[in-house]
Specification:
Layout (H helix, E strand, L loop, with lengths): L10 E4 L2 E5 L10 E4 L2 H9 L6 H17 L9 H13 L6 H19 L4 H30 L8 E4 L14 H10 L5 E5 L6 H13 L3 E4 L4 H7 L2 E6 L3 E3 L4 E4 L2 H10 L4 E4 L5 E2 L16 H4 E2 L2 E2 L12 E4 L6 E4 L2 E3 L3 H10 L1
Parallel strand pairs: 4-5, 4-7, 5-6, 7-10, 8-11, 10-15
Antiparallel strand pairs: 1-2, 2-3, 8-9, 9-14, 12-13, 15-16
Bound molecules: 5-S-methyl-1-O-phosphono-5-thio-D-ribulose (MRU).
Length: 353
């Protein structure tokens, strides 16, 4: 691969509504779902049509713009209750990825400032649409900047392990963790990727493998329980993952299974990196214990792609994320640079830059 070429759009604003590549049916079918109302956007986020922290934020911003575009309100003040209702519906979809709440708050503050300035209803509709598109474009730019800052951390000629999907499918485009890998490949480095399949939703097997193979990046798929074996026996240069929420002390919530891989990486002296935009950093939360962890339906564990694999009546737990304590994290790569220990100092410094 020389330069990355975009071959699909994860989230897109269209005249018909918010278009999403349907991540439930990849890699077998490349289908797009057009959400024609904010409720449909909320349903799509909950059902994982769109997933990945930054992509969820972009989709929510577009959902708000779409909901307001369809409003019948004649006066700007009459939009207030609708904005509140739309934001509440979208905020109730998934609790862990803070990008969702970051994007909702950004759209809400823009609306309040437009209201205070006395602008007209058509102008509010246009400005909210422009803001949602700006959030998408800024996210792509942030991913490219993470690639720029993080590529030098990826060793040439080695294997890089990743968990879940933190690629173009999880962002506006290009990706966070996969963006860093892409940038390293664009610099001419020889990199193989070990993708963990990521039970139960199989983001690694279905999504990471799909998008990296499209790019011509050599990818080996392994099951989650093989991570320790390969970290111990193969020439793995580093592990790099994305994040759903990073607390002020650098604790990172990411896809379930990440914590175990981080511990195994440390045990084997392999650096463990996190790549995430500043919109994923939640400085209001002092440590990972306070990050809400989404619990998903038991059917995701008892079935694989609709096929039952467990006996009827078995008890099931299905937390979608875990928290990796900051001591396992060698660096956090953001669009403004690379943060290292102590994160209580380096993260606010980057946020202020
Ligand atoms: O449940 P998902 O698929 O939304 O979880 C996604 C992850 O955990 C990603 O690693 C994270 O959102 C970072 S995506 C750039």
């Amino acid at each position: 691969m020389s330069q990355y070429v975009e071959t699909f759009k994860t989230v897109e604003w269209t005249p018909q509504g918010v278009s999403l590549i349907d991540q439930r049916v990849l890699p077998h079918r490349e289908e797009y779902l057009v959400c024609r109302s904010y409720q449909e956007v909320a349903d799509a986020i909950r059902a994982m049509v769109v997933r990945g922290a930054p992509a969820i934020g972009v989709a929510a911003a577009m959902g708000i713009a779409l909901g307001i575009k369809q409003s019948q309100a004649s006066q700007p003040s009459l939009l207030q209750d609708e904005v509140a209702q739309i934001c509440e519906t979208l905020a109730a979809t998934r609790p862990t990825a803070v990008n969702l709440f970051w994007a909702i708050n950004r759209m809400k503050s823009l609306f309040s400032s437009l209201l205070a300035r006395g602008v007209t209803v058509p102008e509010i509709k246009l400005r909210l649409e422009q803001e949602a598109i700006a959030i998408l474009n800024e996210d792509i730019a942030a991913c490219k900047a993470m690639g720029h800052h993080g590529a030098s951390l990826i060793p040439d000629g080695k294997t890089v392990m990743t968990v879940c999907n933190a690629g173009a499918l999880a962002t506006g485009g290009y990706g966070t963790a996969l963006g860093v890998i892409r940038a390293a490949v664009e610099q001419g480095k020889q990199i193989d990727v070990f993708a963990l399949e990521t039970r139960p939703f199989l983001q690694g097997a279905r999504l990471t493998a799909w998008e990296l193979l499209k790019d011509g990046i050599h990818t080996t798929l392994i099951t989650d329980n093989m991570a320790g074996h390969f970290l111990h026996t193969s020439s793995i240069g580093c592990v790099i993952v994305g994040a759903d929420r990073i607390a002020a002390n650098g604790d990172v919530a990411n896809k379930i299974g990440t914590y175990g891989v981080a511990v195994l990486a440390k045990e084997n002296n392999i650096p463990f990196y996190v790549a995430a935009p500043l919109s994923t950093i939640d400085l209001a939360i002092p440590s990972g214990e306070r990050i809400p962890i989404e619990q998903r339906p038991s059917s995701e564990v008892t079935e694989i792609q609709g096929v039952k694999i467990a006996p009827e009546g078995v008890a099931v737990r299905n937390p979608a994320f875990d928290v990796t304590p900051n001591r396992y994290i060698a660096a956090i790569i953001t669009e403004r640079g690379v943060a290292r220990h102590p994160y209580t100092q380096s993260l606010p410094a980057l946020a202020k830059k």
